[in-house]
Amino acid sequence: MVEPTDNTAAGATAPHSASAEPRGQASASPMLEMTGITKRFPGVVANENVDLVVQPGEVHTLLGENGAGKSTLVKILYGLYRPDEGEIKIGGAPVEIPSPAAAIEHGIGMIHQHFMLVPTLTVAENVALGLQGRRGLADMGPVRDRLMEVSERHGLAIDPDAYIWQLAVGERQRAEILKALYREARLLVLDEPTAVLTPPEVDDLFATLRSLTDEGRGLIFISHKLAEVMDISNQITVLRDGEVVGRTTPAETTREGLASMMVGREVRLGREVPDQDVGDQRLVVDRLRVRGDRGNISLDDFSVQVASGEIVGIAGVSGNGQRELAEAIFGLRPIESGTVQVRGETIAAPSPKQVRRRGVAFVPEERMRHGAVGEMSVSENLMLVDYDKPPFARGGLLQFGIIAERCWELVRRFTVKTPALSTETSHLSGGNIQKVVIAREFSADADVLVVAQPTRGIDIGAAEYVHERLLEKRAAGAAVLLITEDLDEAMQLSDRVVVIFEGQAMCDLPRAEATTDRVGLLMTGVSEEVPTPA
Amino acid sequence: MARTAPQADDTDASGDVAVSRLARLMRPFVGVAVPAFAAVAALLVGAVMLLAFGANPLVAYGELVTGAFGSADNLADTAVRAMPLALVGVGICIAFRTDVINIGGEGQIILGAIAATVTSMAFDDVPRVLLVPMVIVAGAIGGGFWGAIPGALKAYAGVNEILSTIMMNLVAFHFLSFLLQDLLIEPGAIKIQQTRRLSPNADLPLLPGGTRLHIGVLIAILVAVLGYLLLFRSALGMRLRAVGHNQDASQYAGMAVKKSVTQALAFSGACCGIAGAVLVFGSESHRLIGEGGAAAFTQNAGFNGIVAALFGALHPIFTVPASFLFGGMLTGGSDMQRAIQVPAALVVALNGVVVVFVVGSLRLRDRLRTWVGEVSSYGGRA
């Protein structure tokens, strides 16, 4: 056989070869061509004349803020939506994709953000689910064998007989990828695959992705984490308001450039946090032990102190006790042992009402479930805490004039984009709903703030804004406990970083010592020989 | 132009703005218009039923409308019939807005009626100007107490209020039966479960005009206004509605969720209890009548009031006209039945069809309302 000896030949004739370099060469028809895709929903154009071309062997990133139309586009590709206009070609041939089954037939695999796995079935059983021509789950032998073979071929180790519920998040994702590979997917769509992973797991995932592109598979990678996008992508398509606003490669741009493209204006990433002296201890959590919903110990011997004028970040992968910590501080979860002190005082029968009365404000993790009442108006949500206090209520009656004045002031000050105060809050964008919650909580007299995942799922502009307000509160002498899964956020804003893993504090590092590598490792539960202060 | 969330700067989209204006015009009426259309659709189905019985639907509905609204007397009868529906309906609005389902209206009516009756017996000679308010307040207290029990059970013990309120109906019914067989029974009447003629000082005064219309109608309107003020103008009402929409967020905001649930059912029961007092002291017999007559005394208002409230878009003010229309169907229905000689069950069935259509339309209404809400957000002020 003639071995290709130069790169040009390899690129042109063997797109399936081990070359992971971006191809500059004129190649045969691309793996996927989506042309002029338009999708309208009532009152909204989700995709407007979008073109997307994916070559074999490339990681093509779709970048954009929430609601930019990324998900709509891949749902069209996966047969979950029908486009109103536009054409899809696979390997040069026009195709119709009326259903996910058809998409799978065309070699398209989808790794959903929320894994589509049945927790009470094994990995092999999950793979077998939905395969055509199977007689239930009885005939597992061949499936299992082929799964092992696929797993070995791709170096994706997995126990086919393990139940999904037994697997860690990273392993579940591996199972999802294997499921797609088992179905011989040539084009994989990964919808925010890193959202749930620790930094080392992300590294593993990226190694896997590179080996998949080396085999000539195409990947569509959806993310809004700029560092990852710069790391893994060959091509980047940026969407904004349903339209393609830019096509670029990591070599041609910077993170700032990408961010600006996403939001349509200049964005400054990273910020200077001025040094300042801290004051007295405002919030002291001491050797807290709390049970989770299933009776398991979810916080064990957990201590953290937050003083006036500092932000303490609780970093960690979600599900390691962060939610329970916030709930315990707020009196929503019984404390088994240990104490929570606000300004040196332990609250006897804590409830949100009692805790708030002592000057603690709270931005909950799930803003639609816990932070805002979606069916109520913007003004009602802004007043959700202070509605019954004078001057907003007198003699039990709401003082609408004073309330409106107050709410307009907050809407302006916190730049909430809303047509009216009477607008139903659920009609706002996620970022604006978060601004409503932040406006309410930050404007209160509270000088202790427990802030959980304040920028999750909101766009860069809004996140930037939330960060500014947090630092403003810090400058004003508030004590801020910042619980976040976003490592960058934790490291950027925090004066100290506490890493939480399986309910325990792994470290308490001052900003200068908290490097990404170190914190990332601690997040996986690898402890180090570091004397923890205090 | 592509927007994924309603934004303030959409004024350039002229087509959308027109739709948006239309939607904003529609907005206040969606709540009532959809159930009204559903009622018309139900009457069309009813027309088919009438045809099947060989009756001319046009004649039948003509009789129904005349019977309900055709004369001053008929209007007064309809209004009298509508009062308890409106009172219960306002209570239902308060409960449902707090996301508490109150199926216990019947029991709360009965307890309100008992409390009012006992009060009138105890204060026989108090002048009318005092005794009438006293029996109304007693009714509110009795019904409120009866509602607070399942409310507290739900809030503090997690007992499903749908089951407990229904069970409380049975308890109330048998309690009434017991009282009327023994303690409250009319002296000398051995078999008839009824009290003596209660103090005339507690009779609800008739309104001028020579009809049966009494001040109960004013009480119902007053309660509706108070219900509106409570729900939409008071801090307490804001708390109830917040709890009704999202208990978790309310709790996180520092609201007392359990107290709210208990209060909602107590207020709801109080409204039903007032209905009980009005039913007794606005009746022509001026007695509390039980056994066999028990259903006759409550007129099923504890259940029909739910329909009136849903018909009125769970708004206390709209519940008043809704009750009037529904009351008209009930009074006019009997006239129709007498006039065209269809089985009485057909009238019940007709009412049932209206209920099913109206209640069934509420989901559609909510969806339409969401749509209108979203669309009318376009091109708003910045």
Protein architecture, described:
The complex is a heterodimer of chains A (534) and B (382). Chain A has 534 residues and is α/β, with parallel strands linked by helices. Chain A folds into three domains: 29-107 and 186-266, P-loop containing nucleotide triphosphate hydrolases (Rossmann fold), CATH 3.40.50.300; 119-183, no CATH class; 281-359 and 445-523, Rossmann fold (3-Layer(aba) Sandwich), CATH 3.40.50.300. Chain A is 32% helix and 25% strand. In chain A, strands 6-7-8-3-9-10 form a six-stranded mixed sheet, with helices on both faces. Chain A has a six-stranded mixed sheet with strand order 16-19-20-13-21-22, with helices on both faces. In chain A, strands 2-1-4-5 form a four-stranded antiparallel sheet, covered by helices on one side. In chain A, helix 15 (430-443) runs parallel beside helix 16. The longest helix of chain A is centred in the middle third of the chain and has 16 residues, at 199-214. Chain A is globular, with a radius of gyration of 25 Å. The N and C termini of chain A lie far apart (69 Å). In chain A, 47% of the residues are buried. By secondary structure, chain B is mainly α. Chain B is 73% helix and 0% strand. In chain B, helix 2 packs across helix 13 and helix 3 packs across helix 13 (316-340). Chain B starts with 13 loop residues before the first helix and ends in a 7-residue tail after the last helix. The chains are: A alpha/beta (534), B mainly alpha (382).
